[in-house]
Amino acid sequence: MKSFFSVLSVALCLVALTGCEAMKKADAPKGSKSSASKANKHMPVAEGAMVCSKGAEKRTIENKSTASGGCEVVYTKGGAAQTVATAVKGNDHCGAVAGKIKGNLSAAGWSCN
Known about the structure:
Elements: H1 2-27, H2 35-40, E1 50-54, E2 57-65, E3 71-77, E4 80-87, H3 92-107, E5 111-112
Antiparallel strand pairs: 1-2, 1-5, 2-3, 3-4
């Protein structure tokens, strides 16, 4: 029973800490420039990548073919690129994922070209 309360105590501390971090972000002034939007200003864009923008922020969605005949989708947000989808053969899956990301961003008020 003692270990149950130890685990519960740790879980509650983590929830409290997470809540504090979220509050700090929410309390930031709306006009302040974050490091993410500063990084977006001069973000290099690969040829053929879709660029989505909202205010000063920019994000990219790149659907790349691989040498093995597959594909990968690279999503760049805040200057950090991340592979969000891959396929071993063909481009259909990557095209669908890239389209879904574009749709989600558009629904959130982003403009994608």
